[in-house]
Amino acid sequence: MPIVIPQSLPATATLIEENIFVINEMRALHQDIRPLRIGLVNLMPNKDVTETQLLRMLSNYPLQIQVDLIAMASHQSSNTPPEHLKNFYKNFSDIRQDKYDGMIITGAPVEKLPFSDVNYWNELKEIMDFTKNNVTSTLHICWAAQAGLYYHYGIHNRVLDDKIFGVFPHRVRNRKHPIVQGFDHEFFAPHSRWTQIVEEDLRNCPEVEVLCESPEAGAYLIASKDNKYFFVNGHSEYDHDTLKQEYDRDVAKGLEVKLPLNYFPNDDPTQTPINRWKCHGHMLFNNWLNYFVYQITPYDLYGGKPTLNWLEY
Questions:
Q1: Quick one: which of 16, 191, 199, 280 is 20 to 30 A from 142 by CA?
Q2: Are strands 36-41 and 157-172 parallel, antiparallel or unpaired?
Q3: 93: Cβ–Cβ under 8 A, 6 or more apart, which residues?
Q4: Which of 142, 212, 213, 282 is catalytic?
Q5: Is the dihedral of CA 144, 148, 154, 155 positive or negative?
């Protein structure tokens, strides 16, 4: 089934070229089906790139999905044209009376700042508070994962001396949890961050569980015990060349930057990186949509109540 997005969204052409089934909003209105409503809170600088990556992940699901793109009103983006934001994005004030089957909150390149110093922190807190009663399940990515763990459970992140940068192997800690259904015993995921959640802090919080981890990159996939919140400390949605673009950007700025680990063939930045995480990324998003959004959310978003604890494992 297709993902429903505005016809003029730049991501549309890219997704169609990749043979991903998309339909425009007018055609969707004539289909007798209730799509899953997903809010995508995009905190990344190049919003068109991030929205394409995440729409690609969502598009592999068999049901129709309606996506609302959401940006921060309290932050002026310097990397995304104002026309793009005006034409395709909503602010929290536009959606505060709405309800969603699922919500995704992206990462952001602000991890070295204390949360309270991020200029849109108060607005983001409003959104995370909104998810408590108005969203069936929320997926937090990278910096948003750390922001969400801090906001909901008071778990602080720690700034590292060296950036976690590269593609790392991970193992599943709890194979009975539905969100890891079908994961390989070892799978790969990209990371690009200067901060980390300390394992001891997670162990000391009885409301969350670490589901997947990496010896090098630490806790990767964390879930709240009621399955309402998921926190991904990596970027399974990244394209094969996203880390290369970050590396080339920093080199061009004259910064001292190390090669991303386990990424370039033979550690040669002139060679094309190989994507080793695409299947895992699609499975992660599909499992989240299936087990924790579609099978839990009420048909009537505004009248029904989700049943969050139906799963036994």
A1: 16
A2: unpaired
A3: 73
A4: 142
A5: negative
Written as one string, the DSSP assignment of 156-196 is PEEEEEEEEEEEEEEEES-TTSGGGTT--SEEEEEEEEEEE
State the catalytic residue, choosing from 170, 237, 246, 280. 237
Residues 191 and 168: beta-carbon distance below 8 Å: yes
- Residue 47 · residue 85 · CB < 8 Å: yes
Please give the model's pTM, rounded to 2 decimal places: 0.88
- CB distance 82 to 309 below 8 Å: no
CATH 3.40.50.880 segments of the chain: 3-234+279-294
Catalytic position from the list 235, 246, 280, 282: 235
Cβ neighbours of 271 (radius 10 Å): 12
Digit-coded pLDDT (tens) for 5-35: 566 677 667 766 665 545 455 544 444 467 8
Per CATH, domain 3-234+279-294 is 3.40.50.880: yes
Q: Say how far apart CA 58 and CA 311 lie, in whole Å.
A: 22
Is 142 annotated in the active site?
yes
pLDDT in tens, 188-226: 999 999 999 999 999 999 999 999 999 999 999 999 999
Degrees (nearest 5) of the Cα angle 295, 296, 300? 105
Please give the structure tokens belonging to residue 12. 């549309």
Kindly give the pairing relationship between strand 65-70 and strand 36-41. Answer: parallel
Question: pLDDT digits over 49-66, tens only?
Answer: 999 999 999 987 878 899
Our answer to whether residue 212 is catalytic in this structure is: no
